[in-house]
Protein 1
Amino acid sequence: MPATAIEQPGAGAVPRHVAVIMDGNGRWAEQRSLPRTAGHRSGTRSVRTIIEHSVRRGVEALTLFAFSSENWQRPADEVGILMQLFLEALDREVAELDANGVRLRFIGDRGRLAPALVERMLAAERRTAEKRKLDLVVALAYGGRWDLAQATRQLASLAAAGSLAPAAIDETMLAGRLTTAGRPEPDLFIRTGGDRRVSNFLLWDLAYTELWFTDTLWPDFDVAAYEAALQDFAGRQRRLGRTTAQVRGK
Ligand code: IPE
Ligand code: IPE
Ligand code: MG
C-alpha cells in the first residue's frame, strides 16, 4: 500500500502492524559465558511472549525478523543450529498458534532453505490459513533488497512479455508484488539489542513507520519492554508529510 493509505492513529492508538528486529541473542549468551546459540534458544521464549501480548493488545499483524539474507555469512555451525531451532520451534508451536487463532506466514528466499524446513513452513501456513486473530509473519532468509529485486523481476517479466506497459508501473503496483503485499504497512518498528539500524529489513514498507530502539537484548524483551514501545507509539503524532494543524483539523 502507498504511504497515503496509512491511517492516522491518534492518541492512545494501538499499532495495527508491529515489525520487530529481534537482536541481541548472541550478546545475551556471551554475557553469561554461554555459546551464542544458547541465546538463540532463550530468544524463542520472548517470541512466545510477544505473540501472546500482541493478541491481548489487539495488534492485527506482527512481522518478526528471524534470519536475514546477510545472516548466511555467519559461521556454518551457527547457521545450522539456527535452522534446527526454526524447525523445532515450528514443530513445537504450530498447534498452539493454530488453537489461539494465529495465522502464520513466512517471507524470504525459500530457495536457500532446506527442503524439510520449507515443507514444515508450508504445512504450518496451510494449517493456520483461516485464522484471523493475529497475522504473524516470520521473515526468514529475508532481505528488503531481495524483496524489491524479486518484485521488480516479476514486473519486468510482464513487461517483456508485452502484458504490462512500463508507464503503468506505479508505487501501488510495485508494492503489490512484494512478499509483504496484502497487509497494512508497519505502524511500529522495534529493534532490540541497542543498534540503531534497519539491517535490510522491510525497506519499502518502513517508509512511514514509527521507529523504536531499545538496548534490551532480545531474550530479556518481556511484556513490560513491549508495553514501553506500545505506550510511546500511542503518544506519537504521525503527520505523513502534512502539518500539525492539518492533522489536528482532520
Ligand atoms: C539476533 O541475535 C538473531 C539473529 C540475527 C539470527 P544475534 O545473533 O544477532 O545477536 P547479537 O547481535 O550477536 O548479540
Ligand atoms: C538483524 O540482526 C537480523 C535479525 C535479527 C534476524 P543482525 O545481528 O544480523 O544485524 P547486524 O548485522 O548487526 O546489522
Ligand atoms: Mg545481531
Protein 2
Amino acid sequence: MRIDIVTIFPDFFGVLDVSLLGKARQARIIDVGVHDLRDFTHDRHRTVDDTPYGGGAGMVMRPEPWGEALDSVITADSVVIFPSPAGERFTQATARELAGEQHLVFGCGRYEGIDQRVIDHASSVARVREISLGDYVLNGGEVAVMAMIEAVGRLVPGVIGNAASLDEESHEGGLLEYPSYTKPAEWRGREVPPVLLSGNHGAIAKWRHEQQVERTKRVRPDLLPSAED
Ligand code: JBK
C-alpha cells in the first residue's frame, strides 16, 4: 500500500518511523510519503490560508497550494481522505475498506477548513471521503490521520499485528472486550476471578461472554442490537 500525506506539519508524522508501522515501512509493505503543503506555495511568506468569503471567524486554507499538492500525488486509483468533524464517522468497517486500497492520500486541514472547491475538484479525479474520528474539536487533521493510518495499517496483509486483527472479526456482534488477567493470582489483596484458574474452558468462555455483555450494556449500550437492550 502507498500512503501520501499533505500537511503543513510534516514533523508530526515522524512517529510513523517507529513501532509496528515503522517495521511495515522498512519491509516496504507500506510506503509513506509526507508532503509539506508550503512547498506548493509561490509567495515569499509561503501563505496557505486567507480570510473566509462571506465573513466569519478564522481562516480558510487557500485552494491553489492544495491543487498543486494533490496534482502531484493523486491518480485515478487513489482514495483521497480529508479528516473533518463534518465527515462520516470512522469505524473498524471504514478501516477494513481502506485496508483493501492500493493508494490512500490524506489531506490534513488546519484553521477553519479547506476551500470547498479543493474537495469538489479532487472528487472529479478520484474517490474522495471526508471522515471524522469523533465529535470533538481538534486543531487540525494530523492527529486524526495518525489514528486512521494505525487502524488501517495493521489490517494490511503482511503487517505484524495482522493476525490479531483476524480475531477482531470474531467479536460476537461487536461487543466490548472481556477483562484480562495475568500472574500473580493475587495482587494487593485482589484475586483473579477463580473461573479463569479452573481449567474449565466451557465455563471460561461463558464467563467471558457474560462479562462482554455486561460491560457493553453498562458503557456502550448503543453497540447492542435492540434484542439485547
Ligand atoms: C476533527 O477527524 N476528526 O474528527 C477531526 C478532524 C479535523 C478537525 C476536527 O476537529 N474532529
